[in-house]
Amino acid sequence: MHKSFVVATGVAALTITGLAAAQDVTGAGATFPAPLYAKWAADYNKATGVKINYQSVGSGAGIKQIDAKTVAFGASDMPLKDEELAKKGQMQFPTVIGGVVPVVNIKGISAGQLKLNGQVLGDIYLGKITKWNDAAVKALNPSLALPDAAIAVVRRADGSGTSFIFTNYLSKVNAEWKTKVGEGTAVNWPTGAGGKGNEGVAAFVGRLPNSLGYVEYAYVKQNKMTYAMMQNSAGNFVAPDDTAFKAAAAGADWSKSFYQILTNQPGKDSWPLTGATFILMHKVQDKPAEAASTLKFFDWAYKNGDKTADDLDYVPMPASVKTQIQKAWGEIKDASGKPVYAAK
User: Fold this and answer.
1) What is the residue-wise DSSP string for 90-116?
2) Which DSSP symbol is given to 141?
3) Positive or negative CA dihedral for 190, 8, 66, 43?
4) What is the Cα–Cα distance from 90 to 202, expressed in whole angstroms?
5) pLDDT tens digits for range 248-291
6) Over residues 91-97, mean pLDDT
7) Residue 110 Cα distances to 11, 61, 146, 241, 270, angstroms
8) What percent of the chain has pLDDT over 70?
9) What is the pLDDT of residues 202-256, one digit of tens each?
10) The three-state (H, E, C) secondary structure of 150-183, written as one string
C-alpha cells in the first residue's frame, strides 16, 4: 500500500506520494531542516521522477522511528555520540548547518533591535526574569523602549533537536540552567507554553503579544519574524545569517568524527546557537534498495542542492566534508556485507 505524507515548512506544505517500492523512500525527524528537505525532494522529483517522503515530526520522533526501522532514514539536530551509534548499529552524517534564533513579538520593536545574551536568555527560560523591562534586559538595551509587560515564554512541546541546540547553548552560558535543567531534545521546562515543531513555535510567537521563542532561521525568514541579536563568546552582538553560521562552524573537525557540537564557538562573527543537522541510517540494511535510493538522493543533494540551501540560509557542508561523508557511506551494507551504494 502506498502512503502520502506532508512536509510542513511553516508557510507552505509539500505533498509527496509513494511510487514503486524500489524508488519510494521515507524518512522522518527534525523540523529544523524541513523547509530545505521539502525543496530538495521537490527538485529531486522533477530531476529524476523519484519521490522522497519526509515527515517533519521532530528529532526525538525521528530517532525513535529509525531505531524501530519504520523509516529508511531518521533526521536529528542532536548528533548521537559515536559509542551510542555503535551500540545501535547506526551511522550518522551531517547535511547542512543552520542556526537557532530567539524571536520576539513586542509592539514597536523590529528585527535586530533587541539584544540578548546567554545569561539573560537562560534566566527568562528559568522564570527568573518575567518582564521585558527587567533591569537585566534593560542593561543590554539602554536605548530601547521595553514595555512593562510579562514575557510570554514559548518553547517546544515535542522532542526536538532545535531544543537540544538551544538547551546545550544555555548549559554552556548559564550555570543555573546547567544545574537545574540541562540539555536534551526534551527537558523539564521551568516555564512557558509549548508549540509543536518549529512551525508551531513560530505560529505561537506570531499570535502572542510580548512573546519570546526560538526557531530555526529558515522559519524566521519565511515568516518575517522579529529576531534578537545575540552576544557571542567573543562578546560581540551578532545577527543570524549564513556568514555567522559559517563562522561558528569554521573550527569543527569533521575528519575526527561526525559528532560535532557548534554552539558558543569562538570567533568575533560566530552565531552562538549554530548547529548541524544529521541523517541516521542502519549500517546493516534489511532493505538495501531503499537504502541505496536514500543515499542516491543525498548524493544528488550534495551535488545539486547547495544553492537551494544558500537561498534558505542554511550553510552547505564544505566539499572536503562531503567527500568524507560519501566515503563513510561504504559502512552501509546489505546482509551479505556488500555496500549498498557507491557515490560517483
Assistant:
1) EEEEEEEEEEEEEEEE-TT--TTT-EE
2) -
3) negative
4) 32
5) 999 999 999 999 999 999 999 999 999 999 999 999 999 999 99
6) 98
7) 21, 34, 12, 16, 22
8) 93
9) 999 999 999 999 999 999 998 999 999 999 999 999 999 999 999 999 999 999 9
10) ECEEEEECCCCHHHHHHHHHHHHHCHHHHHHCCC
The three three-digit cell numbers of residue 293, written as one number: 535510493
Cell 559515536 -> residue: 82
Q: Rounded to an integer, what distance in angstroms lies between the CA atom of residue 66 and that of residue 26?
A: 10
Residue 343 is predicted with a pLDDT of: 87
Cell numbers placing 58? 521532530
- Amino acid identity of residue 59, one-letter, is S
- Cβ contacts of residue 99 below 8 Å, gap of 6+? 216, 217, 240, 244, 245, 248, 271, 273, 274, 275
Picking from 310, 259, 300, the residue whose alpha carbon sits closest to that of residue 91 is 259
User: What amino acid occupies position 196?
Assistant: K
**pLDDT greater than 70 at residue 102:** yes
**Which residues make beta-bridge pairs with 237?**
231
User: Which is nearest to 52 in space by CA: 71, 77, 65?
Assistant: 71
Going through the chain in order, the beta strands assigned E by DSSP cover 4-8, 13-17, 25-29, 52-56, 73-76, 90-105, 115-116, 152-156, 193-195, 211-216, 226-227, 229-231, 237-238, 274-282, 315-316
Burial class (CB in 10 A: 0-12, 13-18, 19+), 110: exposed
Residue 7 is predicted with a pLDDT of 43
Q: Give percent of the chain above pLDDT 90.
A: 92
- How many Cα atoms occupy the beta-carbon half-sphere of 278 within 13 Å? 31
Backbone angles phi, psi at 320, to 5 degrees: -65, -35
Task: Give the SS3 label for residue 75.
Answer: strand
Edge-to-edge strand ranges of the sheet holding 115-116: 115-116, 229-231, 237-238
